[in-house]
Each structure stands twice: as C-alpha cells, then as structure tokens.
C-alpha cells in the first residue's frame, strides 16, 4: 500500500497531511520534524504524534475539532483510528486507569505561550464529559473546572509573550472512584512569581485579579474596599499597561467571583 493511501480502519473524509506519527518519517532529523509539523499546521492540524508523545502547535485561533462530536469520536477509539488529538491521549489515559487500576499522569511542557494551560483545560473538559456520575459527582466536576478561572485570576498575568501567562507551576490531581467518576481533587501550586506584585516589565501587567477588581467591582464593593482607578496605584501603573486585547477584566471578575 502506498504511503498516501488510507487503511480501511482510518477515518475517511480526513485529509492526509504529512505524517500523523513522526515515527513514520523516513529520515528523522530536526529539519524533517519541523517540516512535517509546518505542513500539518498549514493544513490546520495542530496535533502530531511521536509514538506515545503528542506534539501540539498553538494555532492562536479556535479550531473546529473540539466539539461534542469529537468527544464522541475519540471515546474508546484506538489511537490510529482518528487523527492525533489531545482527546485521544486523554481517552487512552482514562481507559488505562480504569482497566489497570493505576494512577496516570500527563506532563505538559513547552515555552511560555505554547498552549499548556489551554491543553490542560481540554484534558479536564474531556474527562468531565466522558465520566459518568450523578449530582454529587457533577458537583466535584464543577469544582474542578471552576478552579481554573480562580487560579488564573490570582496566578496569571499579561507578559510580553502571553496575555494570560501562568506565573506559577501547578500539579493538578483528580481522584476517581473505581467506576471512573471524579470524586475529589487536589491542586498543589509551587513557584508563584511573587516579585510580579511589586515590579512588572514594560508592556506587562500585575496579576489579573487587581484589574478585575477595579473594572468589575460594584460601586458598593469599590466604596467598602476603597478601590480607586488603576493610575492611583503605583504597582499597577509603573508599566503603564492596563487594558489587554481580548481580555475583558469586568466579565472575568464575575467569573472569579
Ligand atoms: N489549542 C488552542 N487553540 C486556540 N488558541 C490557543 C490554543 N492553545 C493556546 N491558544 C492561545 O494561546 C494563548 C496562550 O496559551 P497558554 O496560556 O495555554 O500558554 P502556556 O503554555 O500556558 O503559557 P505560559 O507558560 O506563559 O503559562 C491562549 O490564551 C490562547 O489564546
Ligand atoms: Mg499557562
């Protein structure tokens, strides 16, 4: 079978672009890897495997393949049946946990702005959708998902590389019942960039929460807490950056609350 032909078990109406899995490259060197990633990226495929490792390239635009349709498609499917996807990795991990009864771990690494936080949220969202459970479990899921805006308000800030840069490391643990329903969670934070509170580089901001408070607090809250405009505060005005494109501090304040 020629390399461009599809195997019977592969999804149809999916355009072939480069190779899905870079172990299939005939020559493996940096140029070949970068070229394959680039070719796929140009065709709007952000995910590519190298064996069990998933590479994700930040598209900086909403891709159409994160809907309920994909959640359905990747559920219980083997890795080679569908195009590479973070849902495939997550599903694989979830099944392994259920079948082997063993702890699973995803390590997400990459430079600032690479898309680690967004990837982690896709993983949590997928698990939340495919795991069952009644009202109590839904409550746990809600807490897990809703911890994100809260953590980001106090731990993320605009930097020159990423408007929503996580300025801390985190280890996020989700505990499951034997039946695979989330029944608890634990977040360990480490290395919060505390120095940002008192000093920011040009074009960077302090932690989101300060701007959210100033923009989103009610008149009463502002009065009771004595909140002034941002230029009143030295630590919010030294870098002269208040507004961030694509960030609505007011609506994010309500989410944080
Ligand atoms: N899969 C994606 N689809 C669309 N946009 C994305 C995706 N991944 C990342 N982005 C965009 O890139 C921005 C930066 O991504 P993200 O915050 O996940 O980076 P990060 O790796 O966590 O960086 P840092 O180390 O600074 O925290 C996001 O706010 C979003 O606008
Ligand atoms: Mg991040």
Quick synopsis:
The chain is an alpha+beta fold and 257 residues long.
For the structure shown, list the relevant keywords:
6 strands; binds adenosine-5'-triphosphate; 257 residues; two-stranded antiparallel ribbon; two-stranded antiparallel sheet; alpha+beta; binds magnesium ion; 11% strand; 9 helices
The helix-strand sequence is HEEHHHHEEEEHHHH
Ligands: adenosine-5'-triphosphate, magnesium ion
Termini, distance in Å?
Answer: 57 Å
Count of extended strands: 6
Shape: globular
Biggest sheet descriptor: 2 strands, antiparallel
Helices and strands: which structural class? alpha+beta
What ranges have pLDDT less than 50 throughout 5 or more consecutive residues? none
Task: Please give the order of strands in the largest beta sheet.
Answer: 1-2
Q: How large, in whole angstroms, is the Cα Rg?
A: 21 Å
The tally of helices reads 9
Strand content: 5-15%
Arithmetic mean of pLDDT: 93
Percentage of residues in helical conformation: 25-40%
List the SSEs and their pairings.
Layout: H1 30-42, E1 47-50, E2 53-56, H2 68-74, H3 86-100, H4 116-130, H5 135-155, E3 156-157, E4 165-166, E5 169-176, E6 182-190, H6 208-216, H7 219-225, H8 234-237, H9 249-256
Antiparallel strand pairs: 1-2, 3-4, 5-6
This protein binds adenosine-5'-triphosphate and magnesium ion.
């Amino acid at each position: 079978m020629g390399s461009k032909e599809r195997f019977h078990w592969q999804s149809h109406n999916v355009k072939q672009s480069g190779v899905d899995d870079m172990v299939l490259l005939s020559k493996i060197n940096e140029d070949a890897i970068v070229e394959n990633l680039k070719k796929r990226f140009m065709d709007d495929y952000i995910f590519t495997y190298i064996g069990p490792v998933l590479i994700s390239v930040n598209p900086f635009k909403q891709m159409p393949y994160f809907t309920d349709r994909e959640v359905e498609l990747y559920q219980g499917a083997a890795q080679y049946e569908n195009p590479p996807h973070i849902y495939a990795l997550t599903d694989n991990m979830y099944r392994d946990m259920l079948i082997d009864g063993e702890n699973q771990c995803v390590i997400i690494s990459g430079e600032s702005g690479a898309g680690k936080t967004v990837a982690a949220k896709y993983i949590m969202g997928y698990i939340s959708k495919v795991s069952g459970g009644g009202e109590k479990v839904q409550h746990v899921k809600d807490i897990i998902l809703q911890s994100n805006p809260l953590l980001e308000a106090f731990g993320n800030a605009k930097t020159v590389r990423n408007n929503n840069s996580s300025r801390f490391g985190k280890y996020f643990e989700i505990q499951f019942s034997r039946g695979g329903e989330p029944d608890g969670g634990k977040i360990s934070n480490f290395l919060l960039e505390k120095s940002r509170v008192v000093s920011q580089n040009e074009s960077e901001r302090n932690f989101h929460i300060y701007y959210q408070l100033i923009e989103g607090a009610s008149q009463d809250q502002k009065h009771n807490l004595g909140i002034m405009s941002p230029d009143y505060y030295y630590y919010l005005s030294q870098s002269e950056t208040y507004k961030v494109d694509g960030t609505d501090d007011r609506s994010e304040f309500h989410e944080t609350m």
